[in-house]
Hints:
Transmembrane segments: 12-31
Helix content: 25-40%
Largest sheet: 9 strands, mixed
Protein name: Lysine ketoglutarate reductase trans-splicing related 1
Strand content: 5-15%
InterPro entries: DUF707
Shape: extended
Keywords: Membrane, Transmembrane, Transmembrane helix
Order of helices and strands: HHEHEEHHEEHEEEHHEH
Distance between the termini: 99 Å
Number of helices: 9
Organism: Setaria viridis
Amino acid sequence: MKHPPPPTPRRCGVVAAVVALVLLACLQIQYHHLKVDLGKAGFASATQENTNRIHLGITTKAATATTNSLPRGIVERHSDMYLRPLWDDSAAATHKNKNDDPSALLAMAVGISQIKNVDTMARKFLKENYAVMLFHYDGNVDGWRHLEWSDKAIHILAHNQTKWWFAKRFLHPDVMAIYDFIFLWDEDLGVDNFNPRRYLDIMVSEGLEITQPALDPDLSTDIHHRITIRNKLSKVHRRIYDNRPSMNCSDESKGPPCTGWVEGMAPVFSRAAWKCVWHLIQNDLIHGWGLDMKLGYCAQGDRTEKVGVIDSEYVVHQGIPSLGGPSLSSKTPRRSLDLRTHIRRQSSAELEKFKERWNRAVREDEGWRDPFES
């Protein structure tokens, strides 16, 4: 039996070279993947470190430091909501001065069915040179074009979204930093007895960081909490007194809903308070239930002093369930009722989720101490 001839030394050398090249290529690929993995791990660690330094909106300089890949002088830390025309409006630029800059922003989620009411509100704010931003939840933006102030407002469209969903995505503190105050209001508020400039003057003079206008008890159709009711004898109130067992609000009360509390329908925030509140808003819990009970943690101090209801500039809460309610052209009222029921159930479920997240966060953050616990 004949055996095949042994491989020649030349053939063995070629095979060895090929094997070596394959091994080298594999090692290079593994090295590349290792670098990528280490890079991701480093990025994740750095991100987690910065996240841990954020405490309800207060960030350290290290957490907000810009990347070293840019020259320092080119970095723009903030943005704004000014409309920039495509053409060179030299005349407007010449006459513009710092007194023209809006110091407050009114932001609302709106639908076309409330156009008359929103028109009244927007005119009052624009008259004081405050900015207006409308979040259109019904998709109808063109229906507002005939209003003379429409082109002065910022219009943002997203179907069937709440004001908290819009606020989390479009009212970032770095963009809102040009405003001293943020009005995050519902669309169903009557403002016949409200002046935004006088309101802010009171807010500043009283040293308040988070407020809401009081509700007219005679005309408002939807009042949920007694602390929001207007006191005709005062300019501002910060607490209520109620000796019912379910409330038991007295001078000894230290928190909501007896003191240090405003409702989510018409809150007004200072710049510093909003920087904290924006971080408190949950990205996925879009109804905002439960937020009002925690807003006092963003009051930049003692919530019993820094949070209040302003009585002298009051509004009417009309209680119109427009988002998720029947539209002007609706022919299926039964379906609208079903939608409202579904929305309320989802809101209640989100409230429980928010409570669970707060309690878990308190347990896991060993360095955090509740400033309002005695």
